[in-house]
Design goal:
The protein has about 325 residues and is an alpha+beta fold. The chain contains four helices and 15 strands. Strands 3, 5, 6, 10, 11, 12 and 14 form a seven-stranded mixed β-sheet that branches. Strands 2-1-4-9 form a four-stranded antiparallel β-sheet. The N terminus and C terminus are likely disordered. Its main location: secreted.
């Protein structure tokens, strides 16, 4: 085998651990009931994948949306996302636990959560018309030792999971929950921040009447936002969490307490104190069936036997032409 070919193969092998390091939500727990996430390693390759509450995506390389995509529909619920076919019931004031694959420790950054009213069936909603209001955020918690402790670090400490409390005063209806980690390890570069949005469908029931104003997904961020263009490897005097301010009744995520001396909300006010909410012990009966996650790690469909390493579609060419970044 020519030396140049060996060199290419060696480079591809070296990149594989980095590619699979990026994460996604594998499961959701609401009121004691488990719902499968959109399982990226298998569902895109199945002719008839299970119907789930999570939105689908074509991001099979576990990639991200950067600053060049903030005005693109991809920033709403990830690359080429489509609504989940199912919806999970939850009481206003209830908690959603989102379970991630192992999140890379180097990918420090905030965790933010939004809701958008579908004003109808979320399974057929036009994502470009969804208006999101922020219900949770956790940014820079401790900057005493750069790159500091972030919301993402608390997510890792909580066994790669995150709990989101639905505001108790929210109006009943069908909503899309937009959950997102923003990795800032390359944010000192233009468009270097990496967004990993994940969406699920919820039916919220309660006696609340609040309908907070929202922002279109394609208008949530700008590549010049202070919280998206920043060098986290130097001492920071503060941090502005990207996106609109928290809505009334919003809170932090489950990862611990934000330090108000270092963390600032997008409204310019001290960041909200993060609260930890235990999951309800009494299950909330969902109106739809749930998909049980396989006991064994999901695998892509079988491919012809080969000594070559099989990479996600398009990844090899992207690596070779330099169009894929980490």
């Amino acid at each position: 085998m020519p030396f140049c070919m060996l060199a290419v193969i060696s480079c591809l092998i070296a990149w594989v651990p980095i590619v699979i390091a990026h994460g996604y939500v594998t499961g959701i727990v609401i009121g004691g009931t488990y719902y499968s996430g959109y399982l990226i390693p298998t569902f895109p390759y199945e002719k008839n994948p299970p119907e789930v509450i999570a939105w689908s995506t074509t991001a099979t390389s576990l990639g991200f949306v950067d600053g060049t995509g903030y005005a693109s529909p991809d920033i709403i619920c990830h690359q080429n996302a489509k609504p989940g076919a199912k919806t999970a019931d939850i009481d206003a004031g209830g908690t959603v636990e989102l379970q991630w694959t192992t999140w890379p420790e180097s990918h420090h950054g905030p965790v933010v959560d939004y809701l958008a009213n579908c004003n109808g069936d979320c399974s057929t909603v036009d994502k470009s018309k969804l208006e999101f209001f922020k219900i949770g955020e956790s940014g820079l918690i401790d900057d005493s030792n750069p790159p500091g402790k972030w919301g993402s670090d608390d997510l890792i400490a909580k066994n790669n999971s995150w709990s989101v409390k639905i505001p108790t005063t929210i109006k009943s209806g069908n909503y899309v929950l937009r959950h997102e980690i923003i990795a800032l390890h390359s944010a000192e570069n233009k468009d270097g921040a990496q967004s990993y949005p994940q969406c699920i469908n919820l039916k919220v029931t309660g006696s609340g009447t609040d309908s907070p104003p929202g922002t279109l997904g394609t208008a949530l961020y700008k590549d010049t936002d202070a919280g998206l263009q920043i060098n986290i490897y130097q001492k920071l005097s503060g941090y502005t969490i990207p996106g609109p301010p928290l809505c009334p009744g919003g809170s932090g995520g489950s990862g611990g307490s934000n330090d108000s001396n270092t963390n600032t909300s997008s409204s310019g006010q001290p960041g909200s104190t993060t609260t930890t909410s235990a999951l309800a012990t009494t299950p909330v009966q969902a109106t739809t069936s749930t998909y049980k996650q396989p006991t064994a790690p999901p695998q892509p469909p079988a491919t012809p036997t080969s000594s070559a390493i099989t990479l996600p579609s398009g990844l090899a060419s992207n690596l070779l032409d330099g169009s894929y970044s980490f």
